[in-house]
Each structure stands twice: as C-alpha cells, then as structure tokens.
User: Which sequence fits this backbone?
C-alpha cells in the first residue's frame, strides 16, 4: 500500500514540473493565439542560466535567488522577443507566428551549445531538500514534496491573479474575445507583452527548478515542448485549471502505467489526448471556440487560375528544370529529386491548410505510411516498382481515411493536435513493432529498379510526379469541389446553410492530402533506399508546416516555392556548417519579419500594388510569382 | 519560374562547390559523417580525435606520399540526411571511402547506401549487432566493440555475482532492446538459476526517473542492469541515490565508465557499479601514453572515449588505404580483411569473417575520488575474446 501512495506522490511531483511549463503556454495561447513553439527553448534557457547562477552564488539564498533571477532574466528575453519579433506579425495569417518561434528555437539550440559547451551539466541540489523522507519503508525525495506543494501554490497564485486583479480580468476577457477587448479601448500591445512575459517566466521557472533533478543539456527543449502542448490541449486551451488537471492525469497514468506496460511512456500522452479529444473536442475544461468573425485568408488577392501566359511560363520553368540532368552531376540530381519529393509533400499539406483551412501538425504520418507501404510491398511481397508506386500510397490513403474521419470533427488547434496525436500513434507503432517494421533500425534495401536507378532517371520521375500532383491539386482548387471546400473554410455555418455537407467535404480533402503525401513518401523510400520511423516523425511534420508557411498560406501554390527554398537551403547549410540550425533559424526569422505573408504571398501583394499604380510596371515581373506551377 | 531559377542556381552552386574541392585531386579523401549538431557531447571529442589522427598521418608522409584529407559532414541525427551527406561525399567530393556515424540506425542507413553504391564504409561508433551480422554487407566494417561484445564482457563479471533476482532499465529503442536481450541470453546461459523480476523501458531522452526508480525498487531485485546513458542516466542516478535504489544492490551498467557519461555525474557518481568505459587516467601502456601525450599537447584537454573512436577510425582508414594502394572499393575490402593495425589500446584486427574489429573495452568499477567519478580495478578486455565462434557468426551473417 505504501508503495502505491509513494508512486502516486512521485506522479504528482512530475505533474508539478509539467504544470509550471504548461500553464505558461496555455496563458500565452489563450490571449495571443500564438502557438509558441519556443516555449521549450525558454524552459531550456531558464535551466542554463539557473545553472550558471547557482554555481556562482552560494548558500540557500543564493540557490533560491538564482532560480528566481534566472526566471526573471528569461522573462526579460521573452519581452524583447515579443516586442521585436512577434509584435510585427500579429496581423499575419494564423499560425504564421509558429514559424517565428520555430526559427527562434532552432537558433537557441545551437546558441546554448556555443555558450555553455556540449557537455551535459549537472547542477546543485536544492539546499534543505537534498535527502528523502521515509514513508513506511519507502523513500520520497524531499524535493519531490516541495514540487508537490509548489504546483498548487502556483495554481493558486495564478487563480488569484486572474480573478482578483484588473490585469487578470483583461486577460480573461481577451482569452474569450480579444477583438471586443480591443474595441473597448484596452491597449492590446502591453497586454500581449505582459502576458507573454508571464508565460515565459513560468516556463523558465519550470526549467530552473529542474536543476536539482535533471541534467541541463541542449535537447531539453524538444523533450518537453510536445508534451506540454499535449497537456495544454487535454486541459483545454486557455484553462489553467485544465492544464493542472491534465498534468496530473498524464503523470499519474504514466507512473502507474509503467507498472503494467513498461513501454507505455513512449506513447501514453498521445493516447490520452486522442481519447480526450474524440470524447471532448475542446479538452477537459475548454469551451467551444466562438465562430471566427474575420474571414480567414483571401482578404487581399482573390484566387484565380493561371492566365495562358502564366501557364506557358510555368511550363517553361518545368522544361528548364527538366534539363538539369544535361549539365548537373549526380549529387545535384539527387538533391533535385529530394526537393521535388518535398514539393509533393508540401503541396499536399498546403491543399489541406490553405484550401481547407485545416492545419495538420501530423502530416508526416501519411508521408511515412506511403514510404512504409513501399517497403512492405517491395521487400515482403516482392512486387515490381511500378506496382509498388501505384499501391504504396494507398497505405497513406487508408491512414488518412481512418484518422481524417475523427480529425475533421474538430477544428483549429484541436484539429491540429489530434492529427499530431494520430501521427505519434502511427510513429510509435512503427517504432515498437520491431518484427514487422524493424523498429528504429528501419527497413533497408528498398532501392529502385534499374530503369529508375540512375540519378537522372529518378530525377525525371520525381519531377514529373511533382508537376502532375501540383497541377492536379491546382485543378481541384478551381473545381466545384474546391469551391465547396473553400466555402467550409471561410464560413462553416453559411456553407452548411446552403447545403454543403461540410464534414464530408473536409474528410475528402483530408484523404486527398493524405494520399498525395503518401505519393511523396513512396518516392522518398525509393530515393533513400530505406524507411525509418523518422519518416513519420514530428520533425518532418514541422518541416512541412514551415514550408507551407514560408511559401505563404494564403496563396494557391506558395508551398512549391516554400518547399524549394527551405529544402535547398537546409541541405546546403547542413553540408556547409555544423551551426546549420543557427543560420537556418536566423534566416526563417528574417523571412518572417520581411515577408509576413510568406515569400509568395508577399510577392503577390507587391505585384498587386504595382498593377494598381498608375504607370503599370512590366507584367513580366508579376508572372513568375503567380505561376508557381 | 523564379523558384525554378533559384533551384537551378542552387544546383550550380553545389556543382561549383564540388569543383573547388576536386582541384586537389592528388589528395586522398575520406568522407566522414556524424551527428555533430545532435550529439555534441560525444562528437566534439570525437572530432578532436580524428583531427589529431589526420595530423599524425600527414606528418608521417601521408598515404603512400599523398596527403590525407577528411571531409566531414553533419547528419543532424537523421538517417535520411546522413544518406544525403553520403551521396554528396561520394558523388561530388569523390571520396575514397566513407567513415563515421554514431547512432545505430544512421550507421545502418549509410551501410545500406555503401552496399548499394559499392563504396567502402568504416562505421566508427554504431553498436548494433545488425551492422556486422544480420544486416551485414561486404562493404561495411565496424570499429567499436558491438553490443554483443560489451554485453559478453559485462556478463563475465556479472555472472560471478551472487545476485539471483535481476531487473533491467533500458532506453526504449533498438540499442537498449538488443543490449538487454543479449545480456539476458548470455547471463541465463551461464547462470540458469537467475530470475528476471522487472524491466523498465523509458523512452530515450525522456525518462520520468522517479516512477521508474520506484517501480524497480518495488520488484525488489538483488541486482540491476542499466543501459541508459547521457541525461537519462543523470536523472536515474539522482533519483536512485535519493530514493536509495542502489543501496545493497549490485548494478551492472553499459557505457557508464566512459568519461562522456561518468564526468557529468560529479559527486553523485554511484560507487561500485560494474561498467564498461575508458579510464584514460589509469591506462599505463606505451601506445596509450603516446596518444594521451599527443592529445593533451594539442588540445590541453583530456580525451574522452569519443576521442579514441575518432582517432582510431582515421588511423585504421589510413592503414587500409595505404595497404590497398588504391581507392578501388574491392581492393580496399581485400586490404581491410584481416588487417592488423596498432591502436592506443594495443593491436586490433579487422576480422575477415564479419568485418568487426577486435578493439576491446575496459571493464571496471565506479568510484568517487575527490568529488569526481572514476573507474577503478579496471582491466582491458580484448574484443577477440568476446565474439561467438566462427560457425555461429556464419549463421548470423547473410552470404555476400
């Protein structure tokens, strides 16, 4: 019995650390609607700074003072980031801020290694909380007890802050309806900055408090960021109490789950999230989102098919690309194939995000399923390559059909997080089912047949498929189905009122996007000759999001450019420098500030302005932009 | 269209880059790949190690008079990116061979690439048994002692312990799974009387140490096998110390004696664990003294195990290239099979039968000295003594 009590308390201690970080994220999202990918980075910097301070300052005051100082210092960094970076892009399309915080995260990961060195750092134990307390023969670390008390205390303070102060009232009001708050004359700028600072403070505090039990290292951020997102979503966005309950739920399920299934930790949080979201689409304590007032997207440039001149230009671009094998070497061709494959992957997500208004955080699942489909067909069934290429993507299609059915019942960030949960479930199956998938050692030896084996042939294959896919998806945008899908995106209520079966249309779009991603994955398997769980992983899903956002989410085919720029730059930087994350992150942040509508979106706007200006500029300038395929 | 131009431009840039390098056609080039950005704690000392080796090789006249150049690429911890890098090294840098890699799945991805493109590959660090056995191929050689070899070394010591009730804690991925599987198999062969009472599989890098420690303690084992390393190990040790998990229990642990993983533990180092590792401070052989002196003179820092791996990878590669006198992969294979080369740990041989080197490891016990973790009572275990018999290896490895 004593054991179960102690296990329960241990779970509570884990919950407390998780809650501190999650509460900050929840507050930030509730008010500013920023999906703060950099929250983990702030957590990590908090730990690093606290490590440095606790090594310098001695004594009890030194230790606790250092923890608070570190959190305050990181909050200051947060304020600077908010004022310099985020303020410029609040008006950008939804999720665009994610790109900025992603860039920041990349930079921080390299920066901490530059500043603090590559070794894992182990900080001091907390003065007064070094030992353990005996509980009927079981030991409970006293620091755990401290955390168990701290969690509810922070919850209480936050509750008081939100319920009893004017600032709290404003924050709650903004969480519910920020346009109305702005209309009532509240200075949103400072409200947002202060909320961001409080959120970052909590993240950094959570990081600093890990010093006595964890090692400080440069991958801490990734370890926590996904988990806290999940906790926030399970609890319900913007709900502090929800975050607390969700943190306790997840931690306790893990603490007791490992007694029965020792391998459960790897997937537990995602299983819980999937179940919660299917049963309660807004999380445990969340409320349904009010229907958006603004029409998302398309406020500036109405979409239109390409003119015949633009079609010719796109065709010319394709022909030029097709001549690459005449003068480029094998390596350039292989990189070209990889870029073409990522164009397929990015346009498939772009279709779902821009046309359907459904941002998926787990799109790699269908890419990876396509790749695994190939591996199964080619390695186990021994089918010829052409048959494999035709059938392989069907695995992506089936996955999308099953998961899409549940996912499209939700919208906004909840939709995104449910797709993430499904992707992680698929990933963990690929990772754990060693006898079939080979686990993380993957499936090797999936090389193309002779006719496609040479880099130039494979390049033409990939380029051709990418062109076909892009054209097909574009045609679909301007088909009746595309119009119906855009209607569901722009106003769900109105589209249903005129008789569009919205869920069914969205589900169809999800399946189309998933199948297309599967085609990309199928080619990828042949390009690399092997398939790994990485092909389904979070980082690939994030890459796809970044490509779409970089190209411009409000454009018809911006993802093509986004994919080419991001992938080419990424491959080039990784090859040139070990600090590729630092440079790439800096580049992304620069793009975010200079092109707040994405590269293509911004160029389109510029072209639009020129057209309106009295002396009409050369139409040649406008063409390449619109003619992204 | 603009996009296409960007892309074509990028392609030109890549080509131009390739040409700039190929101007030095007389040099002999080795293409090296590792997870520099993902695992700097290991790869920084590793890089220093191979840089020292390159310097020494060239100071001694290069390879049959030609200068040795190592072109190094980061894989970011992703198998797909490692293949892109391998492709660049082979197709546009024209390297004579590939070397390096840390993670097992990346090692396997590059080994499969090498097999497909018929390129010689010397895997430095990946520990998976698959790379030389079940998924072995004729183009791939491996330097470090494999999972099986390290397990066999630890079992030798562990089987002498009186403990009968054993629990295991290992990261939930291939390395952890196969380490536990081999250890259990070899251990149960020697000691049919032992019981396996609990196993814990925290996700790699994400251990929730408190509940794991508590769960293991609840099974009340007499001894524990640990396979976690890095930040997970730190958390496990800290929770285990506070909760008294290790008190009165024997612990056998993979890799923990390597300075990369032992040094961060500082004064929290648990005492008396049986570990594999690298006690650079207590190895007194002329070969190691020479290496240590050169390393400390160049970097003013002590070597980690990564330094040895990096150093010996390039030293071995240079010996293979020198013996082959050509960059033809078939000649390189012929040269490497059965080749014996000196190393800081004594002479090692690349076995013909499975392309595994006989580099060994040190097994000893952890101890605290002046607030730091050290390995004591350590002895070097030759790799050759801990590999299964030829008949068994032949069954494990597919025919070329």
Assistant:
């Amino acid at each position: 019995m004593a054991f179960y009590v102690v296990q329960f308390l241990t779970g509570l201690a884990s919950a407390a650390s998780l809650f501190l970080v999650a509460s900050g994220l929840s507050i930030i999202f509730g008010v500013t609607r920023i999906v703060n990918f950099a929250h983990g980075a702030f957590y990590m910097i908090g730990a690093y700074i606290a490590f440095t301070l606790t090594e310098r300052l001695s004594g009890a005051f030194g230790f606790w003072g250092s923890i608070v100082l570190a959190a305050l210092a990181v909050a200051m960094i947060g304020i600077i980031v908010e004022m310099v970076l985020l303020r410029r892009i609040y008006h950008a399309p939804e999720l665009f801020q994610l790109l900025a915080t992603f860039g920041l995260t990349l930079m921080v990961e390299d920066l901490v290694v530059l500043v603090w060195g590559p070794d894992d750092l182990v900080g001091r134990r907390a003065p007064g909380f070094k030992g353990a307390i005996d509980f009927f023969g079981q030991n409970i670390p006293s620091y755990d007890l401290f955390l168990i008390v701290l969690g509810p205390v922070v919850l209480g303070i936050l509750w008081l802050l939100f319920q009893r102060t004017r600032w709290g009232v404003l924050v709650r009001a903004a969480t519910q309806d920020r346009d109305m708050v702005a209309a009532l004359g509240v200075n949103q700028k400072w409200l947002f900055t202060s909320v961001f600072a409080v959120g970052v403070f909590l993240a950094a505090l959570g990081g600093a408090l890990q010093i006595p039990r964890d090692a400080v290292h440069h991958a801490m951020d990734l370890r926590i960021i996904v988990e806290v997102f999940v906790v926030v979503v399970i609890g319900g966005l913007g709900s502090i109490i929800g975050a607390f309950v969700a943190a306790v739920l997840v931690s306790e399920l893990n603490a007791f789950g490992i007694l029965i299934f020792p391998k459960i930790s790897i997937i537990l949080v995602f299983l819980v999230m999937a179940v919660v979201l299917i049963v309660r689409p807004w999380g445990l304590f969340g409320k349904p989102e009010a229907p958006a007032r603004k029409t998302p997207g398309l406020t500036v440039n109405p979409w239109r098919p390409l003119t015949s001149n633009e079609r010719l230009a796109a065709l010319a671009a394709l022909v030029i690309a097709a001549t690459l094998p005449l003068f480029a070497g094998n390596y350039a061709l292989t990189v070209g194939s990889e870029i073409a494959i990522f164009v397929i992957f990015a346009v498939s997500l772009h279709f779902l995000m821009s046309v359907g208004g459904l941002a998926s955080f787990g799109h790699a699942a269908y890419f990876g399923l396509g790749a695994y489909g190939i591996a199964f067909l080619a390695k186990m069934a021994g089918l010829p390559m052409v048959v494999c290429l035709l059938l392989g993507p069907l695995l992506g299609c089936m996955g999308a059909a099953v998961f899409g059915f549940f996912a499209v019942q939700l919208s906004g960030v909840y939709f995104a997080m449910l797709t993430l949960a499904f992707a992680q479930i698929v990933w963990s199956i690929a990772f754990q089912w060693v006898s079939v998938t080979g686990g993380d050692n993957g499936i090797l030896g999936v090389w193309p047949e002779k006719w496609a084996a040479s880099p130039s042939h494979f390049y033409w294959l990939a380029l051709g498929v990418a062109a076909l896919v892009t054209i097909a998806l574009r045609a679909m945008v301007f088909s009746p189905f595309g119009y119906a899908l855009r209607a569901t995106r722009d106003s769900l209520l109105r589209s249903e009122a005129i008789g569009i079966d919205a869920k069914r249309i969205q589900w169809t779009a999800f399946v189309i996007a998933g199948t297309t991603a599967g085609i990309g994955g199928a080619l990828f398997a042949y390009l690399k000759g092997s398939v790994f769980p990485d092909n389904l992983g979070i980082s690939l899903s994030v890459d796809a999001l970044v490509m779409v956002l970089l190209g411009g989410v409000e454009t018809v085919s911006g993802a093509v450019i986004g994919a080419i720029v991001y992938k080419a730059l990424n491959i080039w930087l990784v090859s040139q420098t070990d600090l590729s994350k630092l440079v790439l992150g800096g580049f992304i942040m620069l793009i975010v500030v200079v092109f707040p509508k994405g590269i293509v979106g911004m160029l389109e706007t510029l072209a639009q302005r020129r057209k309106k200006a009295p002396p009409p500029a050369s139409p040649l300038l406008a063409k390449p932009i619109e003619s992204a395929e | 269209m603009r996009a296409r131009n960007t892309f074509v431009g990028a392609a030109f840039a890549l080509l131009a880059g390739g040409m700039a390098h190929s101007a030095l056609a007389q040099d002999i080039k080795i293409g090296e790949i590792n997870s520099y950005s993902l695992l700097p704690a290991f790869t920084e000392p590793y890089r220093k190690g191979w840089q020292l080796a390159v310097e020494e090789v060239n100071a001694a006249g290069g390879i049959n008079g030609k200068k040795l150049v190592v072109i190094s690429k980061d894989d970011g911890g992703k198998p797909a990116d490692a293949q892109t890098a391998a492709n660049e090294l082979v197709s546009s840098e024209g390297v004579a061979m590939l070397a390096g890699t840390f993670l097992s799945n990346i090692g396997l991805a590059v080994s499969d690439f090498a097999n497909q493109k018929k390129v010689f590959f010397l895997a430095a660090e990946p520990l998976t048994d698959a790379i030389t056995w079940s998924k072995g191929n004729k183009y791939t050689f491996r330097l470090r002692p494999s999972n099986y070899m390290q397990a066999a070394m630890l079992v030798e010591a562990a089987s002498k312990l009186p403990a009968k009730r054993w629990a295991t804690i290992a990261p939930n991925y291939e390395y952890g799974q196969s380490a536990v599987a081999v250890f259990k198999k070899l251990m149960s062969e020697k000691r049919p009387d032992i019981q396996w009472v609990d196993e814990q599989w925290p996700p790699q890098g994400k251990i929730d140490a408190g509940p794991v420690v508590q769960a293991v303690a609840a099974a009340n084992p007499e001894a524990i096998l640990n396979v976690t390393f890095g930040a997970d190990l730190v958390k496990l040790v800290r929770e285990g110390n506070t909760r008294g998990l290790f008190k009165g229990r024997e612990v056998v642990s993979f890799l923990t004696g390597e300075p990369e993983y032992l040094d961060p533990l500082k004064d929290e180092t648990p005492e008396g664990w049986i570990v594999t590792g690298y006690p650079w401070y207590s190895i007194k052989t002329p070969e190691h003294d020479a290496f240590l002196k050169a390393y400390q003179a160049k970097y003013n820092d002590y070597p980690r195990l990564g330094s040895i791996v990096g150093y010996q990878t390039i030293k071995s590669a240079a010996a293979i290239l020198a013996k082959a006198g050509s960059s033809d992969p078939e000649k390189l294979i012929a040269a490497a099979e059965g080749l014996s080369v000196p190393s800081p740990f004594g002479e090692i041989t690349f076995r013909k039968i499975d392309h595994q080197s006989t580099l060994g490891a040190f097994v000893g016990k952890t101890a605290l000295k002046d607030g730091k973790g050290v390995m004591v009572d350590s002895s070097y275990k030759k790799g050759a003594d801990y590999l299964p018999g030829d008949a068994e290896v032949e069954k494990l490895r597919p025919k070329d």
The mean pLDDT of chain A is 88. The CA atoms of residues 141 and 628 of chain A lie 60 Å apart. The longest strand of chain A covers residues 132-135. Chain A has two domains: 2-279, 308-623.
